[in-house]
Amino acid sequence: MDADRVSRALTRIAHEILERNRGIDELALIGIRTRGVPLAKRLAQTIREVSHHDVPTGALDITLYRDDLMRAAVAAQPVVRKTEIPFSIDDKRILLVDDVLYTGRTIRAALDALIEFGRPKSIQLVVLVDRGHRELPIKADYVGKNVPTALTQSIQVHLLEIDGRDEVEIQES
Amino acid sequence: MKKDLLGIGDLTPDEIYAILDTAEAMREIGQRTIKKVPTLRGKTVVNLFYEPSTRTRTSFEIAEKRLSADTLNIAVAQSSVLKGETLADTALNIEAMQPDFIVLRHASSGAGHLLSRICKSRIINAGDGTHEHPTQALLDAFTIREHKKRIEGLKVVIVGDLLHSRVLRSNVLLLTSLGAEVWACGPPTLVPIGLDRLGVRASTSIDEAVADADVIMMLRIQQERMHGAFVPSLREYFTTFGMTVERVARAKPDVIIMHPGPMNRGVEIASEVADGPYSVILEQVANGVAVRMAVLYMLAGETETEN
């Protein structure tokens, strides 16, 4: 996916979000660190342009909820970053945003983390790329692009805000 | 990082910054309605305290609980130590029950190193004699960085009982390794020999030491460790070395005043200073929980084979 296709996919998702939720009432976007955060901000921007309303946006770090901590021997702990959700999620319709949906374990951790902040009315999942190979019963509500992959491949998402360019590429390992 | 945190010397500057950055994230957990994450679920932490402590023990225990570890506290007053058991035997008995961490406070310097040699558990030194108190220095650095946005190039003055202070040693090691200009000030009887070899400017004149300071860190006069005539009287100590409003005025206008506690008001610090607008003493306590959560988290990933 090049920059154009990333941008078109996000625009389409923003419209789908508005259509399916019949407006922006009670909507809130929460990006999963690292690359879900700029994606959530871009969706908020597009929704603002279309609906002329602001959607609250937050950032969630799921490191402390991972199920593989303390399992990998001789590896330094993953870096913990700040969770910033500057609004109450109670009774909100939360759109959880991440770059790649793969095993589903990140989303499981994110759901656990999120639910400790309150009781949202619903949680929907937005991903830029779904690469398959789920290990948990988790499904995205909005997908930028389905990319069938082999387990030996890896998906690299580059975003302007973090990597200086928008691009999604498949790498053989 | 190594398996244990016995002293600041175990940490590289990068590891120190990694702990401080992690502590920033940990602090946010303390501001939530549900102040708990599942990270150390199923891990057991034994807090083994051979010396009285309210602040440090409570701080560790809250940090452990916020990470969902199972904690238990052993205070020596109720333990078999009174029946004559040695530290090593106590540790091996605790170890037989398979804890993951032992947090140790002991009156003898090097007690943590002894445990580190004989125990598989990760050992965190919560103060050993007059040697080191690494988590205190880390929380001090965290507090300084929050106010000054940096540590490098700051003038940090540490005043008080330099001879008996493990807080001094840990802070000197940490602050000099991050590039701060560290001054130490106290009566000549309480200045340890060789302090200058640690890269510290030692002074017996408080007015000279606090001039243009960015940070003033007060140390407690440790009456329980004063077995000789180190100071003529507490009143005289206050007159010569006590931190008063007049002395604070010689430092930079945005100076912060720190104290690791417990404070002796009217001995090393005047009440007006301790409660003054530049005092960050209670912030230090608050930050201690986040910093200890960060240390527990970082050490939890390390395995014994790495040492």
Keywords summarizing the entry:
heterodimer, A: 173 residues, alpha/beta, Rossmann fold, two-stranded antiparallel sheet, 4 helices, 28% helix, 26% strand, B: 307 residues, 2 domains, 5-stranded parallel sheet, 11 helices, 37% helix, globular
In terms of topology, how is this protein built?
The complex is a heterodimer of chains A (173) and B (307).
Chain A: H1 3-20, E1 27-32, H2 36-51, E2 57-60, E3 93-101, H3 105-115, E4 122-130, E5 142-146, E6 153-158, H4 160-163, E7 167-172
Parallel strand pairs in A: 1-2, 1-3, 3-4, 4-5
Antiparallel strand pairs in A: 6-7
Chain B: H1 13-29, E1 44-49, H2 55-66, E2 70-75, H3 87-95, E3 101-106, H4 111-118, E4 122-128, H5 134-148, E5 155-159, H6 166-177, E6 181-185, E7 201-203, H7 206-210, E8 215-218, H8 234-241, H9 245-248, E9 256-258, H10 271-274, H11 281-300
Parallel strand pairs in B: 1-2, 1-3, 3-4, 5-6, 5-8, 6-7, 8-9
Helix pairs in contact in B: 1-5, 1-11, 2-11, 3-4, 5-6, 5-11
Count up the domains of chain B. Answer: 2
Poorly predicted runs of chain A are none
Q: Compute the CA-based radius of gyration of chain B.
A: 19 Å
Question: CATH-wise, what's the superfamily of the largest domain in chain B?
Answer: Aspartate/ornithine carbamoyltransferase
* Class inferred from helices and paired strands of chain A: alpha/beta
| CATH class category of the largest domain in chain B | Alpha Beta
- The whole-number mean of residue pLDDT values of chain A reads 94
Number of helices of chain A: 4
* Helix fraction bin of chain B: 25-40%
Identify the overall geometry of chain A: globular
CATH class identity of chain A: Alpha Beta
Assess the beta-strand content of chain B as a share of residues: 5-15%
Major beta sheet summary of chain A? 5 strands, parallel
Question: If classified by CATH, what would the architecture of chain A be?
Answer: 3-Layer(aba) Sandwich
Number of strands of chain B: 9
Q: Give the chain pair forming the largest contact, with residue counts.
A: A-B, 22 and 27 residues
Strand order of the largest sheet of chain A: 2-1-3-4-5
